[in-house]
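Escalated from tier 1: nickel (II) ion holo job.
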Amino acid sequence: MTRLTILTAPDSRLKRKALPVPAVTDAVRRLMENMAETMYYAQGIGLAATQVGVTQRVIVVDVEYAKKDGKRSPIFLANPEIIRQDGEIVWNEGCLSVPEHTSDVTRSAQIQVKGLNQHGQEVIIDADDVLAVCFQHEIDHLDGILFIDHISRLKRSIILQKLKKKKQNEE
Ligand code: NI
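Tier 2 regenerated the structure:
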């Protein structure tokens, strides 16, 4: 498995809209595995292909990892789609592509997600709480949307300015 480089904002590649994968091939499975490896290493609970510069609709989430003493149980989805949503939840979100910043975001509290698993089978997952938040956050990435796009313009521009400065210092 290979650890991939996670893009951080501001980066125009994070704004690209990802394309559906025609089928879950070995190459897609390899991408899923590498994304999981990357996510666990970075101690994230979700990762979208967009964040590693791949414009395919593929995500991995594992919100239980921290709770289960490091036991990995990743959920892989290709072409994920929210087919039902209900209620409202406010969650203090962070993102591996927006390092060191968090913000409250309002999302649907209960959702149903449809997609293809790593075996290419169609699955439907009911999610609430942090899992629902995580799916919505990752699917947003596939459409080029970051959690900071859900907050006020002023707060977003402050965060982006800080991230830009941080990048310049690292160069
Ligand atoms: Ni994210």
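The chain has one domain: 12-170.
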